[in-house]
């Protein structure tokens, strides 16, 4: 089993739709979690950190469920520019960041 | 957010040559930096963890004599690909850890093509 698992997608959604991604992690000792987005042939860019209480940044909401060991990312009112690969990252012991394989999102006009 | 630069952004070299890639944290100090490589449509693969003032920690299967890492200051880490071969052609990305939040910030990447 992979340490961080994501559905690779692609998720094809129309503009304006709400879309949610889940990510599961296997290491219960993981303390910090992040969502990054990566555009084709570019570096990952931090989208948001994920806090235990959940956090929101504009159209994006991230949540953490420690009991079930998953984190989620909700995107409301999808824009064409949201099309990208979304990477889930867990920070485990010894400061090793574990990346999911990413979920591809395509927002269609 | 924090800014990490990487230089060069693109390099084309002949087989057998060595290529040095620089990674700098521009507005914060980073005791820990990371080097990744990524093949097209594949996930990021961690190559090594670079710690300021000490030896890098390499992931299994990554040759430390081929991929030399130096982290001589709190804002600079370098990766040297020695005796490059065509199979070393890839997208190399560095990141720096912002200690206070444990957040990684990535450089823009270096696209290496070995002919």
Mean pLDDT of chain B: 94
Determine the number of helices of chain B (DSSP H or I, runs of at least 4 residues): 0
- Can you give the helix content of chain A as a percent range? under 10%
End-to-end CA span of chain B: 36 Å
Question: How is this structure best described in words?
Answer:
The complex is a heterodimer of chains A (109) and B (115). With 109 residues, chain A is mostly beta strands. Chain A has strands at 4-6, 11-14, 19-25, 32-38, 44-50, 55-57, 60-65, 70-75, 84-91, 97-99, 103-108. Chain B starts with a strand and ends with a strand. The mean pLDDT of chain B is 94. Chain B has 115 residues and is mainly β. Helix content of chain B is 0%, strand content 54%. The A-B interface holds A 31-32, 34, 36, 41-46, 49, 87, 89, 91, 95-97, 99-102 and B 1, 32, 34, 43-44, 46, 49, 91, 93, 97, 101-109, 111.
Defining key terms:
heterodimer, A: 109 residues, mainly beta, B: mainly beta, seven-stranded mixed beta sheet, four-stranded antiparallel beta sheet
Could you give the topology of this structure?
The complex is a heterodimer of chains A (109) and B (115).
Chain A: E1 4-6, E2 11-14, E3 19-25, E4 32-38, E5 44-50, E6 55-57, E7 60-65, E8 70-75, E9 84-91, E10 97-99, E11 103-108
Parallel strand pairs in A: 2-11
Antiparallel strand pairs in A: 1-3, 3-8, 4-5, 4-9, 6-7, 7-8, 9-10, 9-11
Chain B: E1 4-7, E2 10-13, E3 19-25, E4 32-38, E5 45-51, E6 57-58, E7 67-73, E8 76-81, E9 90-98, E10 103-106, E11 110-114
């Amino acid at each position: 089993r992979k340490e961080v698992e994501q559905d690779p997608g692609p998720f094809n959604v129309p503009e304006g739709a709400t879309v949610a991604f889940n990510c599961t992690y296997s290491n219960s000792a993981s303390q910090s979690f992040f969502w990054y987005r990566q555009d084709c042939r570019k570096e990952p860019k931090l989208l948001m950190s994920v806090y235990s209480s959940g956090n929101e940044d504009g159209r994006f909401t991230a949540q953490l469920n420690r009991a079930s060991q998953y984190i989620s990312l909700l995107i409301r009112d999808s824009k064409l520019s949201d099309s990208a690969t979304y990477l889930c990252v867990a920070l485990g012991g010894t400061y090793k960041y574990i990346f999911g394989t990413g979920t591809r999102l395509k927002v269609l006009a | 957010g924090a800014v990490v630069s990487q230089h060069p952004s693109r390099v084309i070299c002949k087989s057998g040559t060595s290529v040095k890639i620089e990674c700098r944290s521009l507005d914060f100090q980073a005791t820990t930096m990371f080097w990744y490589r990524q093949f097209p449509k594949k996930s990021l693969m961690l190559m090594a963890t670079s710690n300021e003032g000490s030896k890098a920690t390499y992931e299994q299967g990554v040759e430390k004599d081929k991929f030399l890492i130096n982290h001589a200051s709190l804002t600079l880490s370098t990766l040297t690909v020695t005796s490059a071969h065509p199979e070393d052609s890839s997208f190399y990305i560095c990141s720096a850890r912002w200690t206070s939040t444990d957040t990684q910030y990535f450089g823009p990447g270096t696209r290496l093509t070995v002919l």
